[in-house]
Structures are given as structure tokens and as C-alpha cells.
TrEMBL record:
PANTHER family: DISULFIDE BOND FORMATION PROTEIN D, GLUTATHIONE S-TRANSFERASE KAPPA. It comes from Thermus aquaticus. Belongs to the thioredoxin family. DsbA subfamily. One of its GO terms (molecular function) is oxidoreductase activity. Residues 113-285 form the Thioredoxin domain. Keywords: Disulfide bond, Oxidoreductase, Redox-active center, Signal. Signal peptide: none annotated. This is DSBA-like thioredoxin domain protein. Pfam families: Thioredoxin_4.
Length: 285
């Protein structure tokens, strides 16, 4: 997973409270400051957002962020608040908490709203490479040469594919080849589209994610695909254009690395954690 902040921020931490049962946040916060209250927005009994209303209390807000996200944002927030608290006076601010959460701050009366980062589902356009026929969409923006994408395909996608085949969700693959660092990413994506032309995207996807890059005709042969049709497809500028358009979409959405996963409109903080992916899918129902 290519990111501009340490991978350790995403791995080995407690599950984010967002997406989990509402009661988990209420228990984790403990006593509130005098005159304060926390209101939650739930969806299907799961936490979608939380709003603190009351006196400005930086130390409690730091705890609010850490318990609400399951990530160590507290000290970074305290450092920011010490330098910028004057900017709050009379202004509404929206802070980015990493790439996965937002904090909205409102003045007079003071309130702070924590919510997951989301994208309107209409912004994704048409989903074409889909496994499953019903349920919320799980969109995986991925790169066949990315080792973290290969890890996701190896460790997490098998369970999700099984659930998709049982009708619990729709698993949608979205191309985001990181051409600046992965020379085989675009050719592999193009080849996967050629497999799709013959109804074999997901088996071909699995071979590519096993690290079998380069001999794209050989992979098609291994799956029993029509070799001549596949070879013609590999030369098709129209097929290459499909991949490039999806890459352009990922960049317009502000995505910065792979794999990036959305459950419905909600960006999943740690797609390597199957339990968290399933929590977010519940939010997306």
C-alpha cells in the first residue's frame, strides 16, 4: 500500500470505532467534560458519525478522535490545536485525519463532528469487473504489480469473493496502475481486460496477483482462452483506453496509492483487516 504516511499507522492498531456498534464508542469515551454531550449518527446500529458539543476541551477531543477512529491521532491534534486554536474563532474548519477520516469544527457554540471520508457512489461511474449480483459494492482500486495489492488478493479477497458468490456483496475491481513505479502495471491491466472480453477476468486476475506478470498470452493459454482473439485484444487502443480512463478517475478522486478500497461510498481505513471491511460493508447496506 503506497502512502505518504507510515504504513504502521494502518496496521496493528485497534479497529476503528466507526463502522462498529454504537455502544463501543460510548463505552470507550468514558466520562464527558461538564456541560458536554456526544451525539451519534447510526446506520443499521453501527456508528456512522459522532458529534461532540460542549466547551472547547482539547484533551477530550484528542481522546474522542482516538476512540472514534482507533488510530493515534490524539497527539497530532493536540499539537495542531496549540498552534491554531485562534483560527477556530468565528470559523468553521474541516481537518483531514490521514486519508480516511474528517473532523469538522464549528464555533459558537463549539462542536466537533467526526466522520469517515466518503465519495458519492455516482462519482465512481460504471462498475464493469464485478463479482456478485447483489449487495453493497466493495470497490478495490488496485495495481497488478503492487505487492500490497497482491497481499490483499492473497489474504483478504478470497473470503470476500466467497461472500460475493453467496450474494452478500458485489466485488468490483477498478484499475489504478501506478505507472510511475510499476512498468508492468499497465500491460497487466490491459491483459486483464482482454481476459474479460472472454469472460475470464477473475481467474486471470488471480494469476496476475500471484505475481505471474509478463507472459500474458501464456496466462491466457493456461486458462484455455482463444489465443488469436487475445493477441488482437492486446494490440487494441480502445482496450488500453479503458484502463487509462479508470486510472484518470482514481486521480480525480484524489486517490494516492493502492490498494484503496471503498465500501459503498465509504473509504475503508485498513482493507487488510477483513473484520473492518465487513463492518464498513454493513454501513454501506
Amino acid at each position: 500500500m503506497r502512502r505518504l504516511f507510515p504504513l504502521a499507522l494502518l496496521l496493528g492498531l485497534a479497529l476503528a470505532q466507526i463502522g462498529r456498534p454504537v455502544e463501543a464508542l460510548q463505552k470507550a469515551l468514558g466520562p464527558l467534560p461538564p456541560g458536554a454531550k456526544v451525539e451519534v449518527e447510526a446506520k443499521g446500529g453501527r456508528l456512522l458519525s459522532a458529534t461532540y458539543r460542549g466547551p472547547e476541551n482539547a484533551s477530550f477531543l484528542a481522546r474522542f478522535l482516538e476512540k472514534g477512529t482507533g488510530m493515534p491521532f490524539g497527539q497530532a491534534f493536540l499539537d495542531w490545536y496549540a498552534k491554531n486554536k485562534e483560527a477556530l474563532k468565528g470559523r468553521r474548519l474541516t481537518l483531514n485525519l490521514g486519508e480516511d477520516f474528517l473532523l469538522e469544527l464549528y464555533p459558537s457554540p463549539f462542536q466537533a463532528r467526526l466522520l469517515p471520508r466518503s465519495v458519492p457512489e455516482s462519482a465512481f461511474g460504471q462498475d464493469r469487473l464485478v463479482l456478485g449480483q447483489k449487495g453493497p459494492f466493495l470497490r478495490v482500486f488496485s495495481d497488478f504489480q503492487c505487492p500490497y495489492c497482491q497481499r490483499l488478493a492473497r489474504e483478504v479477497l478470497p473470503a470476500l469473493k466467497a461472500r460475493a458468490q453467496e450474494g452478500e456483496l458485489r466485488l468490483s475491481y477498478r484499475h489504478f496502475p501506478l505507472t510511475e513505479i510499476h512498468p508492468e502495471a499497465l500491460p497487466a491491466a490491459h491483459a486483464s481486460e482482454c481476459a474479460q472480453e472472454q469472460g475470464a477476468f477473475w481467474p486471470y486476475h488471480d494469476l496476475l496477483m500471484a505475481g505471474r506478470l509478463g507472459d500474458y498470452l501464456g496466462l491466457a493459454r493456461a486458462l484455455g482462452l482463444d489465443q488469436e482473439a487475445f493477441a488482437r485484444c492486446l494490440q487494441s487502443p480502445e482496450v488500453r483506453k479503458r484502463v487509462e480512463e479508470e486510472r484518470a478517475l482514481a486521480l480525480r478522486l484524489g486517490l494516492r496509492g493502492t490498494p484503496t478500497v471503498f465500501a459503498g461510498p465509504y473509504k475503508v481505513p485498513n482493507p487488510f483487516d477483513l473484520a473492518q471491511v465487513l463492518d464498513y460493508l454493513e454501513l454501506a447496506r
